[in-house]
Each structure stands twice: as C-alpha cells, then as structure tokens.
Amino acid sequence: MTVYLPAVAGYPGLPGALIEAGLGIGDIVHVTEYVTRPGLQLSHARSIALGGHRVPVSRVPVEAVVGDPSPYILGVSAHPGGGTLLAAGGDALRVADGIVYLPSVHTTEGEFREQYRWCLDRIASLLALAGLSPAALTRTIDYTATATRADYPRCGRPRREVLGAGPVHPGAAGILVDVPVEPGAQVAIDALAAMGGLEAINPGWARYDTLTYKPAVRAGGKIFLSGFGALDPVSQQALHAGDLLAQADYIYASIETVLTAAGASGSAVTGLIEYVTPDAVADYPRTAALRAKHFPNAAVTSVVCSALLRPEFLLETIPSVVPA
C-alpha cells in the first residue's frame, strides 16, 4: 500500500520521517518540492538524501508553507520496495501498485496554449516508457502563471486533442502561481497515471459531461480524485465568497459525495494537499475541526498559493489516492 507522509521539513529530515513510517529511502516513489524561494537550488541536498535512488520529482512554487517558515517542504509518496524504475536519459518514472508516478513538466517556449500542449505531449512521451498512452492518466494538476488566468480556458482544446473525447478523463486541479517554476514558464503540469482500464466516477453532476476532466476516476482498486473548490456543480457558480469555513465545509462534503458514489468514505483518505490563498491564511486554523470530522485519518500538507482559478476561491483541496 502506498504511504503519503506528512509534510517533511526538507531533505535533511527525510530519513527520520521515513523511519517513523517504517520505510526507507529505497521505498520512495515520488517527491514533490514545495518551494517558497524562487531559484532555490535543491539538487545537491536531494542527491545526498536520495543517494543513488532515482525518483520522479515535482517542483511547485508556493508563497509559503502554512505555519512554517521553512524555505521548502517535501511531499513524499512511498511504497514498500519502491516499485519499478523506468528511466531514459534524465527521465525517471516509478510504477508501484499499479500507479505510474511522473515528474512535473514545463517549457519556456511559446505562448500559453502552445506551452500547455507541449506539456501534454511531454507527458505522453514519458508514459510511453511504461507502454501507456495519455488515456492512462488519472489526474493532472496545472500550475499556471497568475497573469494567464484569462487564457486558462484555452487549455481545453489541447486537452481534448491529446486526451481524447472521453467518456473517461482524468481528475484535475488548477493552481495559480505569481512566480513560475522557471522564468518564462506559463504552465507546469504534474500527472499521475495507472495501469489497467479506467472508470469515470461522477455523482450525477452534468457539468462534467462537456469537460476534459472528471470528479474522480477508478483504476483497479484505487480512486483518483480531482481538486475541489467551493463550486456549485449545477450552476457552476463559486459559493461562499469571503467565508473560508463555509467553503471548506462545502469542499469536504463534495469530496465525500464523490467518494460515496465510488463506494468509499472520507475515513479512507490518508492524505490531503490544501492550497490556501493569502487572504485565507489567518482563518485557516479554524478549518482543522471540520477536516478531522470528514477525514480523520488524513495527513495534511498545507501551502499558500498565489491564487486559485476562480477569484472567489480561498481553498482548493486535493485528496491522495484512495483505496476503493
């Protein structure tokens, strides 16, 4: 079973965090670096911590870590034995328990839609290492430059061209960043994929019939969920503007609705990533009781993003992979 560690305070703390979970460096299948300082170099610290163990790495620029002044933290996924390494040149993927872990991808060439299409094509070439196509994708997370918010709907065309007409599409989430992962990069994409056939999970929300993502997909015995904000799935209107607690309550209930449709519950969620906007940081501790009520077993990683795709959103929550 894959383990999602609580946020690790940097590479020096990685061995101890793994030991506490009964794991070792060789069990790591993916690392996400949530970095608060532009240009922060982590390759040396990463090399020392991982030794010769190659894993796909995602780098996510954030404004801050909630309640922590650290320049960066780590999100770590691990599976006993570390799965199977698939590598070509500088690229590394890990396949563990049917899940395919990829590194994040980005380019600095072209305008927004061209960059978005390049990222999807790059993901397709990485999946080919595992003998898969983009049809195997179970979740994408877009980190787009805040200045491109008005252009974001233009990603629909390249998504449809690469991902196909459906009926199954991956879950998705969208986060805005003021400072991109590299100067000139207007978008970076994180992705997960899975071996075997996929099944779309939708509790009856018609808006998803025309979109290139779904509330969740099932692959084998696992559920991969989208990111959730306080959005009415019928009217497509943002809800509870300015009220973080009300938004959190709505988000958590929406996640449970999708899990119920998949035959699961909030108690099965072992990890959550929460993207909090700067305006919501002061009130964020007040969401803890709500979160514990819905997801009593979840380790939570909370970071401050520049903004979210809907200006009214104060919070977006992405659950970990959930056993079906």
TrEMBL record:
Superkingdom, taxonomy of origin: Bacteria
SUPFAM superfamilies found in the cross-reference section: YjgF-like (SSF55298)
CDD domains, A to Z: YjgF_YER057c_UK114_family (cd00448)
Name of the protein described by the UniProt record: Enamine deaminase RidA (YjgF/YER057c/UK114 family)
